[in-house]
Amino acid sequence: MGRRSRFNRGWRPWVLLPVLPMVLLGQSHIKANLREPEAILVLGGAAEREHFAAELAMQHPDLEVWVSSGTNPEYAQWLFQEANIPPDRVHLDYRAVDTVTNFTTLVTDLKAEGVESVYLVTSDYHMRRASIIAQVVLGRYDITFKPVPVPSDHGSAEPLLRGLRDGARAVLWVFTGQTGSSLGQRLSKS
């Protein structure tokens, strides 16, 4: 009687810790499938992303378009005007300096507008990294996203390590309000 079997040693809730991220990711995927996107979020870096977003905006005439650090303002305004997207539907923002700040500079604006779900537009090879960051940054404000990859000739997806690095930067932002981008800029100048 003095010895307990190895299955009867008592409840240890810490054993569920590895499962918690999967539960949270599952919950956000369910929400993303239940919520219709209310805006289009375009990550700058390639003009074809904005072209693709203009086509998507024509298919969804009620959605506003948010472009983070895309092409120059004159070209972007012309592009959306050519697609007959009214200027009041298009928000051009140039505060971001990298993929993490594409999200961190706009997430509070999206939330202030009452947006709870977005179409996330970026190149196909960039989508994995963007999705990792979006999960953290947009998820912090309970904003879900549906990935809409733009086909490219780039080939394979970016390395997973790059996505994990930027995912860690996104977590840093959640806890500190800092993305680490200024550190990267200082190191590149050295």
Any overview of this molecule?
The protein has 190 residues and is α/β, with parallel strands linked by helices. The protein has a single domain (14-189), classed as Rossmann fold. 47% of the residues lie in helices and 15% in strands. It is built from eight helices and five strands, in the order αβαβαβααβαβαα. A five-stranded parallel sheet has the order 3-2-1-4-5, with helices on both faces. Strand 2 (64-68), helix 3 (73-82) and strand 3 form a beta-alpha-beta unit. The longest helix has 17 residues, at 160-176. It is globular, with a radius of gyration of 20 Å. The model is unreliable at 185-190 (pLDDT under 50). It comes from Leptolyngbya iicbica LK. Residues 38-156 form the DUF218 domain. This is YdcF family protein. Pfam families: DUF218.
Summarize it:
Helices cover 47% and strands 15% of the residues.
The CATH topology: Rossmann fold
Number of helices: 8
**Average pLDDT value?**
87
Main sheet: which strands, in order across? 3-2-1-4-5
How big a fraction of the residues is strand? 5-15%
Task: Give the CA-based shape.
Answer: globular
Q: What is the count of distinct domains?
A: 1
- Classified by CATH, the class is Alpha Beta
Helix content percent band: 40-55%
The ordered string of helix (H) and strand (E) elements is HEHEHEHHEHEHH
Q: What is the CA-CA span between the terminal residues?
A: 68 Å
Radius of gyration: 20 Å
Number of strands: 5
Q: What is the CATH homology-level superfamily?
A: HUPs
In quaternary terms, these chains amount to single chain
List low-pLDDT spans: 185-190
Q: Please give the CATH architecture.
A: 3-Layer(aba) Sandwich
Largest sheet: 5 strands, parallel
